[in-house]
Model the fold of this input.
Amino acid sequence: MINPRAQHNFLGRSCSISGVGSYVPERILTNADLEKMVDTSDEWITTRTGIKERRIAAANEFTSDLAAKAAERALKMAGVTADQIDLIIVASITPDMPFPNTACLVQQKIGARRIPAFDIEAACSGFIYALEVGQNFIMSRACETVLVIGAEKLSSITNWTDRNTCVLFGDGAGAAVLQHRPDAHGLLTTVLGADGAKAGLLSMPGGGSACPASAATVADGLHFLRMDGKETFKNAVQAMCSAANEALQRCELQIDQIKCIIPHQANRRIVDAVGDRLGATPEQLFVNLHKYGNTSAASVAIALDEAVHSGKIARGDLILIVAFGAGLTWGAAVIEW
Ligand code: UT7
Done:
């Protein structure tokens, strides 16, 4: 039973996840395929990251398409029709275009009403940021049903000639339907954080107001994602552990009370280091990065859907979601499923 202090977050009513869904594009890019594109090897990618393959969206398949497909599956599980949604939030660093936002495009694609729709950009932590924002709309009674989506077409900002980054990322989307359920505690707490002093570690410098698109920015490769992998790795482990510990502490929970930990799927070594430091068993850690690579804002959303649909999580279980990404940003959420 949850300690009543865990309910400090409830402004009158709780917020539960009543449905989850995900979608990944059909095309699979394997490590063997990458060996033909850059100077790399299946052995290097597997031992350094754990990734074996990733999904790549078709040329005419955009972030909003992936998001809409994941959303339709989450709505189906929740037993909710598109016209019942009161708000759509999309977390992404690869929107279809700078504006209008991707959430508006998803609204049209799934046939929702003229409800509010906006995007959140917190990179790989975006889905947890979106969950926190969405739950506040439920708890304040501003909305009955909120659709939260993490969706990315990272292949569109990947430099396919840079072996340091092109082996790491993939495309996909995951979605959750948030509602108040009288029989469940739902989201118990969410811890969010950011450190703008380290913005340079992981970024796409071109295309914004600081560096508007021009022939020169394209020639300089400024529209590709770039990352200082080693520094990002160290920061990821530290930030994910401290966010997870703070979330557990707030709920007065020990790690062995958590049924399933869903960490951001960036690198198997990061997942294992976070698991070790939290004192988790390998059985508690959900891992699917070997199939999809790092899908940024979609990562924990896809993993949550797979954990639920594979039977690893049942109603009443306690789960811990923890993510880290560019910004730097990080977040952790404890949920009574
Ligand atoms: O989602 C947001 C957060 N993102 C992350 O958390 C990612 C964090 N970082 C990482 O996952 C790891 O740092 C990487 C997987 C990116 C790199 O692993 P690493 O153990 O830190 O390797 P490294 O950067 O130290 O590179 C070691 C060597 C270098 O060669 P030299 O300089 O030692 O001769 C690289 O050039 O590996 C080389 N290398 C590769 N070799 C073959 C880098 N990429 C590749 C590659 N294939 N794809």
User: Anything to note?
Assistant: The pocket of oxa(dethia)-CoA is lined by residues 40, 44-45, 48-49, 124, 163-164, 167, 202, 229-230, 232-233, 236, 266-267, 270, 294, 324-325 (CB under 6 Å).
